């Protein structure tokens, strides 16, 4: 389905917490055949700055073809429709 397509995934990976939704999003993208540009947000400051910049309340956030798909639930719906 997604042959030769790249998705950009911004996800939280802090020393004390790895976001399970980010892990799930990566697994879904790889299962769908995407090459994943995995952008790790590795501090609370990076996470907060990313959310403020993008105007979102949560991570992960997935982008495909320059379009923000949303979080892992949004990605699941996107992949079901593709």
Residue stretches low in confidence (pLDDT < 50, at least 5 long) are none
Strand-and-helix sequence, N→C?
EEHEHEEH
CATH architecture, please? 3-Layer(aba) Sandwich
Contiguous helical run count: 3
* Amino- and carboxy-terminal Cα gap: 8 Å
The level-1 CATH class: Alpha Beta
- Share of helix, binned: 40-55%
Q: What global shape is seen? A: globular
- Count the E strands: 5
Question: What fraction strand?
Answer: 25-35%
Q: What is the oligomeric state here? A: single chain
Into how many domains do the coordinates divide?
1
Radius of gyration equals 12 Å
Quote the average pLDDT. 95
| Structural class by sheet pairing and helices | alpha+beta
CATH topology: Glutaredoxin
The CATH homologous superfamily is called Glutaredoxin
